[in-house]
């Protein structure tokens, strides 16, 4: 983690969508990160109310959300579909749990030449 990265954990009364929305609202390039909110909402809905642990880091260059859960894994086809809509998805078993990492990079601003 660099000096400009900030680590986040959900507040006690915050659900997954509110958690991600709060992080996005603090970033300078919100539009590029909105898809993360949708992907987290999809992942949580696929867990069908199984408990999960969320954390995140954000910097001006990227946002990374990590979701850990136990029980059976999310269908691999859904993980592949989710990966089509962001920069990187990693879904791996860790002991008796599963760890889903969603990374969204913020593209640098476009530079155009004046005519």
Structure description:
The longest helix has 13 residues, at 34-46. This protein is α+β, with helices and mostly antiparallel strands. 27% of the residues lie in helices and 30% in strands. The N and C termini lie far apart (41 Å). The protein has helices spanning 16-25, 34-46, 76-83; strands at 6-8, 52-58, 62-70, 88-94, 97-105. The protein has a five-stranded antiparallel beta sheet with strand order 1-2-3-5-4, covered by helices on one side.
Observed structural traits:
single chain; 115 residues; alpha+beta; Heat Shock Protein 90; five-stranded antiparallel sheet; globular
The SSE order reads EHHEEHEE
Overall outline: globular
The helical percent reads 25-40%
N- and C-termini, Cα separation:
41 Å
**What is the CATH superfamily classification?**
Histidine kinase-like ATPase, C-terminal domain
By secondary-structure content and strand pairing, the structural class works out as alpha+beta
CATH overall fold name? Heat Shock Protein 90
Tell me the number of structural domains: 1
Q: If classified by CATH, what would the architecture be? A: 2-Layer Sandwich
Biggest β-sheet description: 5 strands, antiparallel
Helical run tally: 3
Low-confidence stretches: none
Strand order of the largest sheet: 1-2-3-5-4
Give the number of DSSP strands: 5
**CATH class (first level) name:** Alpha Beta
Measured by DSSP, the beta-strand proportion falls in 25-35%
Radius of gyration: 15 Å
- Give the overall average pLDDT: 91
């Amino acid at each position: 983690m660099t000096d400009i990265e900030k680590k986040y954990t959900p507040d006690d009364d915050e659900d997954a969508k509110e958690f991600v929305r709060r992080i996005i609202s603090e970033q300078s390039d919100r539009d590029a990160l909105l898809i993360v909110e949708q992907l987290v909402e999809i992942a949580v809905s696929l867990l069908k109310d199984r408990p999960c642990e969320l954390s995140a880091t954000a910097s001006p260059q990227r946002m990374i959300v990590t979701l850990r859960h136990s029980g059976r894994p999310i269908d691999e086809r859904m993980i592949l579909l989710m990966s089509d809509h962001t920069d990187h998805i990693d879904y791996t078993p860790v002991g008796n749990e599963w760890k889903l990492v969603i990374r969204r990079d913020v593209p640098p601003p476009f530079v155009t030449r004046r005519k």
